[in-house]
Design brief:
Elements: H1 4-20, E1 32-39, H2 46-67, E2 70-77, H3 82-94, E3 99-102, H4 106-122, E4 129-132, E5 149-151, H5 156-168, E6 175-181, H6 184-200, E7 205-212, H7 221-230, E8 234-237, H8 242-254, E9 259-262, H9 270-274, E10 282-286, H10 295-307, H11 315-330, H12 335-342, E11 346-349, E12 352-356, E13 363-364, E14 367-374, E15 388-396, H13 398-401
Parallel strand pairs: 1-2, 1-3, 3-4, 4-5, 6-7, 6-8, 8-9, 9-10
Antiparallel strand pairs: 10-14, 11-12, 12-13, 14-15
Length: 413
């Protein structure tokens, strides 16, 4: 006789198979799901926000064709500001949006969680659900966890668990300098780097720890001078966008001979800033890499063909993999029913099986440690036409990076 677990797995497998073959037996074909994309479309991080908006729009187009549910994604420019995030959230609510997506900035993410919690409590029947594809402050799924918030990227503690594991496998890493943006994300990167190195790699010395204003520094030469003076052989940074591109440019100009352990060196614009320098020195720990085969490659090539720029934020594909399956499971596009269906859901995404952990709504997923190098036969994708690419060094299964949660989830009755 089949056990409850085997029956559940069989049901999940059958549902996934129907979904993957374009079956809309459980989905509400013909209904429209409107997603308000709240992220910078102007200011120093506009290029990142605009690239990810296009990623959402192409992913929505492809999911619409597959499921029969019509997805619409519209940008609301928050200028990377928590206060402006609240202003545009109100505009989105007034226009009838029930789904919100955001990822650039944990400060904006925290503001969204609080505002959506308040809105949903006061407006039963008009609830909003928040898809967080990149804001990685661990507190968002711990102390600030919310039934209405789902994170599709690995948080800082998860990435750092895998990153320090990679350091322990590299005997050349002996002295680490941590530099980051002075807001929640940068502060958390610094905290977890030091904590996890102390626990996992006690022979590695942290020789510097510095934060700088986010989106304001135009010349990072003084910061690079401090790194050189420290004797660091490795730099760890959670910087993204302009703040990472300019930091690496300053390192190149100063001839800094160090390895770089990053989260976002593959994001829009940064590969161009790296160019032909630092081959074998720049690494990323992320949910994908340039030459990941299968569904990732198919989307990567379609994106490049349509927009004439590189696709770099693969966690958006996790959003739609889980959302498609949840709508099919719920037999509804109602946000409350879809949110309940997402809890604990395991689906096949571009990187294999991923699970939306019910306890805190943190996606459990494999991570890929990749290194910047010249393109070759095995790694042919030419990132931002630089002649270089990110090649896989090692894949870390989800259990390597999975971290416990302190979330005390309050669910609607």
């Amino acid at each position: 006789m089949a056990t409850r677990r085997s029956l559940a797995l069989t049901t999940l497998t059958m549902g996934a198979a129907l979904l993957l073959h374009g079956g809309v037996a459980f989905a509400q074909a013909g209904e429209t799901v409107k997603i308000a994309f709240i992220d910078p479309q102007s200011g120093p991080f506009a290029n990142i926000g605009q690239n990810i908006l296009r990623t959402f729009q192409l992913a929505a187009e492809r999911s619409s064709a597959k499921t029969g549910v019509k997805y619409e994604v519209t940008a609301f420019d928050n200028k990377a500001s928590p206060q402006e995030t609240l202003n545009v959230l109100k505009a989105a609510i007034d226009q009838g949006y029930r789904y919100v997506a955001q990822g650039n900035g944990s400060g904006a993410a925290a503001a969204l969680i609080d505002a959506i919690n308040n809105h949903n409590e006061r407006n039963p029947g008009k609830e909003l659900v928040y898809f967080n594809y990149a804001a990685v402050d661990p507190e968002l799924t711990n102390a600030k966890c919310s039934f209405w918030h789902f994170r599709f990227d690995a948080d800082t503690s998860m990435k750092m668990e895998a990153m320090v594991t990679a350091m322990t496998e590299d005997p050349t890493v002996k002295k680490v300098y941590v530099i980051g943006q002075n807001y929640a994300h940068g502060q958390q990167v610094a905290q977890y780097t030091k904590e996890i190195i102390k626990r996992k790699a006690p022979n590695v010395q942290v020789v510097g720890d510095e934060l700088h204003p986010i989106g304001q520094v135009k010349d990072f030469a003084p910061y690079i001078a401090k790194i050189k003076q420290s004797g660091a052989d490795t730099v760890v940074t959670g910087n993204w966008g302009q703040d990472l591109s300019l930091l690496i440019k300053a390192a190149k100009d100063a001839g800094l001979d160090a390895k770089w352990y990053t989260y976002y060196a593959g994001a829009q614009g940064t590969p161009t800033a790296i160019g032909n320098a630092l081959s074998g020195k720049i690494t990323t720990m992320y949910g994908s890499y340039s030459n990941l085969p299968g569904d990732y490659t198919a989307f990567r090539d379609a994106f490049k063909a349509k927009y004439k720029q590189d696709f770099s934020t693969s966690t958006v594909l996790h959003v739609f993999a889980v959302l498609d399956a949840a709508i099919a499971k719920a037999k509804s596009t109602d946000p409350v029913k879809v949110a309940r269906a997402m809890e604990g859901l395991t689906v096949r995404s571009y990187a294999g099986e991923v699970t939306m952990r019910a306890a805190d709504h943190q996606l459990q997923q494999p991570l890929f440690f990749a290194t910047w190098q010249k393109t070759d036969a095995k790694n042919p994708y030419n990132v931002e036409d630089t002649g270089n690419t990110f090649a896989l060094t090692k894949m870390y299964p989800s259990y390597v990076s999975s971290t416990p949660t302190s979330c005390q989830m309050k669910r609607p009755s």
